[in-house]
Amino acid sequence: MITDAVIPALNEAQTVGRVVESLAPFGLRRVVVGDNGSTDATAEIARAAGAEVVTEPHRGYGAACLRALAHIRRDPPDAVLFLDGDGADDVRRVPDLLAPIERDVADLVIGSRTLGRAEQGAITPVQRFGNVLSSTLVNLLFDVKFTDLGPFRAARWAALERLEMADRDFGWTVEMQAKAARRGLRCLEIPVDAHVRLAGESKVSGTVKGSVKAGVKILYTIGREALRR
Ligand SMILES: Nc1nc2c(ncn2[C@@H]2O[C@H](COP(=O)(O)OP(=O)(O)OP(=O)(O)O)[C@@H](O)[C@H]2O)c(=O)[nH]1
Ligand SMILES: [Mg+2]
Fold first, then answer.
1. Domains of the chain, with CATH numbers?
2. How far apart are the CA of 107 and the centre of ligand 1, in A?
3. Could you identify which of 89, 112, 113, 209 might form a hypothetical disulfide with 194, taking C-beta atoms 3.0 to 4.6 angstroms apart as the criterion?
4. Which pTM value belongs to this model?
């Protein structure tokens, strides 16, 4: 199975190189870093570590993912692996995320930090509450059983394309899950451990502004997808 990895990264010079290198054992075809005009050496370091770097002028987690997907669409893989650039994801679980897709028993595999073990400080109380609330809403509205909206996940390329992903910021992960449920994709969760970012500054859950913006966007996205049913 041909698999490409997508890593959205904004100012992760201290960690992105280690994340890219950590994927080396897993036989991925390529690692694509979606950069939003980082002001540090994120792009150079990612490239030196062996990644292809695409630049998206508009800020946003989803925008960077969309740009990376546009890049690999020219020569699509069988599956895409998503992970963050801060080293918080447990890459030892990469084979577990990909296996259900390869065995053709799932189209979308979410790494759930709720089912796994979270290192002290890896998930803030606000984030935990937001995750439970959002997952519960998605489960009720779309008749699925998610326990997390984590970034560490894998999707079958053809199935992902059917979702017509569009969110340009922090609605990205929940949009994928809501649409996958709505369109009848086979969804699965596996437990993953969550680490504290290796270094560098938090852009989302570590700040009040980031948490509020992400929370509002996630709830809005759930509502929007529910109304589209
Ligand atoms: N391309 C891009 N990446 C982003 C943007 N905002 C965040 N990211 C990346 O998204 C990932 C998640 O952001 P984090 O800052 O780690 O957010 P978090 O995981 O909630 O918070 P931490 O506790 O600091 O890990 C990281 O790889 C960031 O570099 C953005 O606007 N554009
Ligand atoms: Mg993080």
1. 3-227 (3.90.550.10)
2. 25
3. 113
4. 0.96
pLDDT band at 204 (very low <50, low <70, confident <90, very high): confident
Residue 141 CB: number of other CB atoms within 10 A?
Answer: 17
Distance CA 171, CA 76 (A): 24
Which ligand 1 atom minimizes the distance to the CA of 214?
20
Ligand nearest to the CA of 9: 1
Share of the chain above pLDDT 70, in %: 100
Would you state the structure tokens that stand for residue 107, as one six-digit string? 């189209």
Interval between CA 86 and ligand 2 midpoint (Å): 6
Distance from C-alpha of 30 to C-alpha of 129, rounded to nearest angstrom: 35
Six-digit token string for 167: 């969110």
Distance from Cα 105 to the centre of ligand 1, integer Å: 30
Residue 208 makes CB contacts below 8 A (sequence gap 6+) with none
Predicted confidence (pLDDT) per residue in 122-160, tens digit:
999 988 999 999 999 999 999 999 999 999 999 999 999
User: What residues line ligand 1, using a CB cutoff of 6 Å?
Assistant: 8-10, 12, 34-36, 59-61, 64, 84-86, 88, 197, 202-206
CB 109 within 8 A of CB 97: yes
Please choose, from the candidates 17, 18, 32, the residue with its C-alpha nearest in 3D space to the C-alpha of residue 80.
32
Q: Identify the band that residue 206 occupies on the pLDDT scale cut at 50, 70 and 90.
A: confident
30-35 and 108-112: which strand pairing? unpaired
